[in-house]
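ping. complex inputs:
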Amino acid sequence: MTLRALGYRMVQALLVALLVGGLTFLMMQALPGDAAFRIAAGRYGYDMVNAAAAAQVRAELGLDGSGWSAFAAWLGDLLRLDFGTSLISGRPVMEEIRHQLGASLQLAGVSLALSLLIGPPLGVIAGLHAGGWLDRGLLVLSAALRAVPQFLMGLILIVTLSIQLGWLPAAGHGRADHLILPALTLALGLAAISARVTRDAMAGVAARPDYAFGRWKGLSERQMLRRHGLRNIGVPLVTFLGLQLVLLIEGVVVVEAIFGWPGIGHALVHAIFGRDVPMVQGTALLLGLGFVLLNALTDLAAHLIDPRGARTP
Amino acid sequence: MTMSDTTLMPVARHGFGRLRWIGLVLLTLVVGFALLAPVLTFTDPLQQDLMKALAGPDAAAPFGYDHLGRSLMARLAAALRLSLSIAAASVLTAGIVGVGLGVLSAWRGGWIDRTLCLLADSVLALPGLLMVLIVTAIVADRPLAFWIGLTLVLWIEYFRLTRATVARQLAAPGVQASRLLGFGPGYVFRRHLWPDLAPVLLTVAAFGAGTAIMTIAALGFVSVGMRPPAPELGLMMVELLPYYREAPLALFQPVIAIFLTILALNLLAQGGRR
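pong. complex structure:
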């Protein structure tokens, strides 16, 4: 069953590649002027380009053929992971992306870890004391946090922690303290949701008869939580977090652009701004595939925690 | 936040009617402000008066002026009108497409169902913001690009929920009885499918509108959305951020506006979930 789920994710990954390929092809077609001339200019520089170079590019990429043959060639390049060179920096797209991927993974990893440190523990405590003051407070706080889009959270953190209090740098990359604000921005949004999910799952588990039986048997609260509570809330939490990871991917795009974090999202926004189609293609494909990969890992984690019911998506 | 997550989110079990009511009142206030502000003061949101840059409120501009001396109230109302109308348009078209395809998929089954599900799954795998971002690069006109991009993103949730709900209903005895009695598809849809579907769709629509408004503002904020001088919430924030020390209240206004709008839509949506 797990194999089937993974096979499904493979098909999904292929479809993402096709979709990104199709959309970026349309983007290329929508650019004003002659695409061949622009690509030639990207390769040789605007000073060196002439009609002969453009004609050569046109013949090479099959741009003079029908739209369909051009599209087929375009997809062929994409599936061989040959993105070409950036129209702006002139360096191979793969090289640029490899550089940015590290920065993005660092940011995403730290934010995810931070959100897991904040959200689920609060949710467990609130769920064990459902209806208490922490539970009520958390309900309001989480509703408020979910009404704050990520870019707004970034703005609020910059204004309060960086401008008003001067504790942290507002933007930049290189020192460790540059990571804190963007990671916190992403983590707070994720934590608001994971806290709610954990709370509801925990409250549900704690209200079950077997939980009451465990208490009656004489197990301490700590034992109950460790042996019976956490494992039971694991699957809903992991499955749900998997769905929420799209927030992380989208967040990476917005938050990196705001804080000037040199990752893939930042590169994507700049590439869109400069109509750098090869870079858009590379970064969009990587983000889409990253999302599929995260989902596959979620399937796997849910299976490891609870091997009983194999969950096919 | 995308919709697939929110609709699957477990729900707290108390105080539903009240929350939904609060959401509706808040949304009415926001929409009312967006529509009525231009009636109350006839100020052009683009008209500059540099002598009044960052000035406080007066009769012509009850909310004060921005860094170029434009009326903040007029700009805020225009920005809200823009975001709300794009959100409404995309939620509507996405709803029509999604519900139509969902009913078709559940009703016909077979290869139509499989193809549509595969299509929905592959679009779902592309983060919504990414889709909208790429469409803005293809279509030059920004509001149109947002409309198309958001429709492409939002239809999936309608499709999936409609398909699941309708499939369940079609197998129920009520529908079979109606069909045996010779009623047509239109009647079956109206009498059996729609009553079950409508409350679900309201929730999807409210969350979808929230997603749309957040996306427009987020892209405006990172300078790939609407272009200046168009009044737009995210754009207003990024324009006013450098003047935060001189005029904190000016920056505060679009922030509050978007917070209240999203909060209202979230509350409205949550009331419909069971």
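Residues 35-41+61-269 of chain B form a domain with the MetI-like fold fold (CATH 1.10.3720.10).
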